[in-house]
Write a structure and sequence with these properties.
Elements: H1 4-26, E1 30-41, E2 47-59, E3 63-79, E4 85-103, E5 109-120, E6 127-141, E7 145-159, E8 178-195, E9 198-208, E10 213-224, E11 229-240, E12 250-261
Antiparallel strand pairs: 1-2, 1-12, 2-3, 3-4, 4-5, 5-6, 6-7, 7-8, 8-9, 9-10, 10-11, 11-12
Length: about 260
């Protein structure tokens, strides 16, 4: 499979360009952002890293809807015990999410319903699906910056990796098993327009449950290259409070990508 899913993601990003332009001209309700980055090295060390994503915002009279699709794929050259070098997949993760925000009479407040699915071949959990609903509002609303918050209950259904060393209360292996639990979700989203050409963003999201508490953070700086194209530098952190002994509780990712908005 390798690059198949990510190739579809990149192709979809290009294909939506014309569609979004037409929609914006007629309705002025669609905002589409595509993101793409790639790192390929050769010589003493051979690596291939691809990262892509699409975000679509649909603004209606009573609803603001957001749809996201993201993916990352990485291959590294690894030397085995015999000294032979082979390329191995070292990271592969795909995520999809959708959120509908129903506008309330109060300024910058809404009710939301949210759903997401993550497929992670090297993470603490093989897959995770979340559905939730709740309330959101803007805590800070200045000319050059704003801070929004969301909170609500939800349900998570997740799968342990096939090689997981986790066991249940009876001592049975949880490798490849599915579990579900009620969770509480919270999110803070901060945006600061530093200048006409630079913007800083900070996102923190927490999923609290009895089995595991997952915390995600993205710190990013975007610099405008022209009217539609930006360069993005981002640092992502994902922490899981309860993982198998052979897994790290914290994953980090630093990325450099180009972002095209239309």
């Amino acid at each position: 499979m390798k690059l198949k899913l990510l190739s579809v993601l990149v192709a979809a990003s290009a294909a939506t360009n014309a569609f979004a332009a037409d929609a914006d001209a007629e309705q002025r309700t669609w905002e589409v952002t595509s993101e793409l980055g790639a790192i390929v090295t050769s010589g003493n060390t051979e690596t291939t890293t691809l990262k892509g994503g699409i975000k679509v915002q649909h603004n209606l009279e009573h609803w603001n809807n957001e749809y996201k699709l993201d993916g990352i794929y990485k291959e590294d050259e690894v030397e085995d015990a015999n000294g032979d070098k082979n390329k191995q997949r070292t990271n592969e993760k795909y995520s999809i999410s959708a959120q509908g925000n129903y506008k309330l009479n109060e300024d910058h407040s809404h009710l939301f319903i949210y759903g997401s699915h993550v497929s992670d071949y090297f993470g603490a959990y093989r897959s995770e699906s979340v559905i939730s609903a709740g309330y959101g509002l803007r805590l800070l609303n200045e000319k050059t910056m704003w801070l929004s918050a969301e909170v609500g209950p939800g349900y998570k259904y997740f799968e342990y990796p096939d090689d997981s060393t986790e066991i249940d209360d009876n001592g049975n292996s949880l490798a490849g098993e599915f579990e579900g639990e009620v969770i509480a979700l919270g999110k803070l989203d901060y945006n600061w327009q530093i200048s006409e050409s630079a913007r800083f963003t900070q996102l923190v999201a927490v999923e609290y449950g009895d089995t595991n508490t997952k915390t995600r953070s993205e710190t990013a700086l975007l610099a405008k290259i022209n009217g539609s194209l930006q360069m993005k530098v981002a640092f992502n952190v994902t922490n899981n409070s309860d993982v198998a002994d052979d897994k790290e509780s914290t994953d980090t990712e630093t990325s450099f990508t180009l972002v095209y908005s239309f």
